[in-house]
Task: structure prediction
Amino acid sequence: MITYGAFAGIVAVALGLVLTPGPNMIYLVSRSVTQGRRAGLISLGGVAAGFGVYLVAATAGLTAVFTLVPGLYTAVKLAGAAYLLYLAWQTLRPGGTSAFAVADLPADPPRRLFTMGLVTNLLNPKIAILYVSLLPQFVDPDRGSVALQSLLLGLSQITVALTINGLIVLSAGSIAVFLAKRPSWQRVQRYIMGTVLGGLAIHLGLTPANS
Result:
């Protein structure tokens, strides 16, 4: 079974990633602002399906990775930490923008909304690297089934991501108006998220493999 530390770690990473503007957030906010909450929730259903695809692939793949190439763990761990640092820089760099500064989109039918949510998530580099490089850092082969640990950690990440994204969809219009009138708040949001991601990157990069 997973430890409390592993659970808390993946939740912290999931929070940092879901609150950092990326393809999923931008698409969901754009749909919610231009087409309403129902369209945003349908799109979120597609995003959820994309998480499911990644989770199934990661659960099967991580088992093989740890069984056949245990030494790959360190390389994957450092790659994940480096990616978190990259996300922190993208968030903090001069000229960074808020996901709530969105452009208008034409109205789409429900099937297309769901499909675009799915495709957006499957092609989202943040999610791909999360499951390939970050999630394995919280799996300890000495604590039992790697596949089961991967499944539980993945479900924890999905719960966080869907909860936060759902709240964003429901409040996107109000948040967009609020931030548009208060640019300083947008900067504060970016600085907080960038700092959190940078701190996580340093912590994960320095944590021993078996801790």
In short: The two ends are 15 Å apart (CA to CA).
